[in-house]
Automatic annotation (TrEMBL):
<dbReference type="InterPro" id="IPR002933">
    <property type="entry name" value="Peptidase_M20"/>
</dbReference>
<keyword id="KW-0464">Manganese</keyword>
<dbReference type="Pfam" id="PF07687">
    <property type="entry name" value="M20_dimer"/>
</dbReference>
<feature type="binding site">
    <location>
        <position position="101"/>
    </location>
    <ligand>
        <name>Mn(2+)</name>
    </ligand>
</feature>
<keyword id="KW-0479">Metal-binding</keyword>
<protein>
    <submittedName>
        <fullName>Amidohydrolase</fullName>
    </submittedName>
</protein>
<feature type="binding site">
    <location>
        <position position="162"/>
    </location>
    <ligand>
        <name>Mn(2+)</name>
    </ligand>
</feature>
<dbReference type="InterPro" id="IPR011650">
    <property type="entry name" value="Peptidase_M20_dimer"/>
</dbReference>
<feature type="binding site">
    <location>
        <position position="136"/>
    </location>
    <ligand>
        <name>Mn(2+)</name>
    </ligand>
</feature>
<dbReference type="InterPro" id="IPR036264">
    <property type="entry name" value="Bact_exopeptidase_dim_dom"/>
</dbReference>
<dbReference type="GO" id="GO:0050118">
    <property type="term" value="F:N-acetyldiaminopimelate deacetylase activity"/>
</dbReference>
<keyword id="KW-0378">Hydrolase</keyword>
<feature type="binding site">
    <location>
        <position position="365"/>
    </location>
    <ligand>
        <name>Mn(2+)</name>
    </ligand>
</feature>
<feature type="domain" description="Peptidase M20 dimerisation">
    <location>
        <begin position="185"/>
        <end position="275"/>
    </location>
</feature>
<dbReference type="InterPro" id="IPR017439">
    <property type="entry name" value="Amidohydrolase"/>
</dbReference>
<feature type="binding site">
    <location>
        <position position="103"/>
    </location>
    <ligand>
        <name>Mn(2+)</name>
    </ligand>
</feature>
<dbReference type="GO" id="GO:0046872">
    <property type="term" value="F:metal ion binding"/>
</dbReference>
């Protein structure tokens, strides 16, 4: 792979920046120190910044020439609410907060590109460097858009990338169409009448109804939707009772629903509600059904995906097809408004971790995870080449 010498030369400094961010993780919409650090560095490199979009978001603006064309490059900056099990020098300094998804690395790769783009500006147009807060459940992309991201930073396309453990380090994967699923949550409460466990006929027991409801939900997947459509219903929490000899008054069920299309999501939500109310009535219970839609599906645009593939091939990268995942990603909000592509960069098998790492695997959302710093020059070069290719291409 042909990496930029200028990006390679700054590798040590950007690695130090990445590890500083890793050691000081901040949760969604609380990324003040991280935002200050990013803004200060961009300003030092002569890049104007916009702050305050999505509360703690930062956008750097690199311009050259006279073309009105513009491209957005996005990195997420927030951490997860979990305790790190690693003990190396840059491990999290705060219990209950950890960069376990590699957002520190995503930020570092875009910062490496920012420094090069500012110094050489081998393009005609504008590059918007989007450092987004609150990807982990807060919908930071949605909030930046609400705050006027695309009005203040009009762009023709937007691109994002995520590291992927298990893929060979520095390789890439992408695909057109749906690549990440919608993320949705439900909470259902079945209310009956408590009684002594030895005298169930004196009460209205919600537990059998809850058990049947868990099973009934799966008939939506295998009987209501088309077999070729993708959908997942997972009941992940079930709360009932306080004593072994007492029939509880109520049962609470919670879980997640994932789909690749809004149409399938509409079907699943409607049928879940119908089954909940129907079973509750059959058991003489009352039901409360709450369904909350979080992130929409992440759907890559065909032309922009083909563009990314070609740009990566041109820089000598290994590119493979991406098998879509039922995980979710709030980059989806950008793709509802602008053409673009969200793709993967391999993080390796975990052997890059230095001494002092935890005993767990180097997988996303694992307390033993750490970003592979060897990706920083790869990702930095990638963003530079994508921006240059997009802005210097004939519209």
């Amino acid at each position: 792979m042909r990496l930029l010498d200028t990006v390679l030369a700054q590798g040590e400094a950007i690695t130090a920046l990445r590890r500083d961010i890793h050691r000081h993780p901040e949760l969604c919409f609380q990324e003040q120190r991280t935002s200050d650090l990013i803004a200060a560095k961009l300003t030092e490199w002569g890049i104007p910044v916009i702050r305050g979009l999505g509360k703690t978001g930062v956008v750097g603006i690199v311009q050259n020439g006279s073309s009105p064309r513009a491209v957005g490059l996005r990195a997420d900056i927030d951490a997860l609410p979990m305790t790190e099990k690693n003990a190396f020098a840059h491990a999290s300094a705060y219990p209950g907060r950890m960069h376990a998804c590699g957002h520190d690395g995503h930020t570092a790769m875009l910062m490496a590109a920012a420094q090069h783009l500012s110094r050489y500006r081998n393009f005609d147009g504008t590059v918007y460097l989007i450092f987004q807060p609150a990807e982990e459940g807060g919908g930071g992309a949605r909030e930046m858009i609400k705050d006027g991201l695309f009005e203040r930073c009009p762009m023709d396309a937007v691109f994002g990338a995520h590291n992927w453990p298990g893929m060979p380090a520095g390789t890439f994967a992408l695909a057109p169409g749906p690549v990440f699923a919608s993320s949705n949550e439900f909470k259902i409460t079945l209310r009956g009448k408590g009684a002594h466990g030895a005298m169930p006929h004196l009460g209205l027991d919600p537990v059998p109804a809850a058990c049947q409801l868990v099973t009934a939900f799966q008939t939506i997947i295998n009987r209501n939707k088309r077999p070729i459509d993708t959908g997942v219903i997972s009941v992940t929490m079930l709360k009932a009772g306080e004593a072994t000899n007492v029939i509880p008054d109520s049962v609470e069920l919670q879980g997640t629903v994932r789909t690749f299309t809004v149409e399938v999501l509409d079907l699943i939500e409607r049928r879940m509600k119908e089954l909940t109310e129907g079973l509750a009535g059959a058991f003489e219970l009352t039901a409360e059904f709450d369904f909350h839609r979080n992130y929409p599906p992440t759907v890559n645009h065909v032309a922009e995906t083909a563009f990314v593939r070609q740009a990566l091939v041109d820089m000598g990268a290994t590119v493979q097809d991406f098998e879509p995942t039922m995980g979710a990603e709030d980059f989806s909000y950008y793709l509802l408004h602008k053409p673009g592509c969200y793709f993967l960069i391999g993080n390796g098998d975990g052997t890059h971790r230095v001494g002092g790492h935890g005993l767990g695997p180097c997988t996303l959302h694992n307390p033993s995870y750490d970003f592979n710093d060897a990706l920083i020059p790869v990702g930095g070069t990638m963003w530079v080449r994508l921006a240059e290719a997009f802005l210097n291409a004939t519209p």
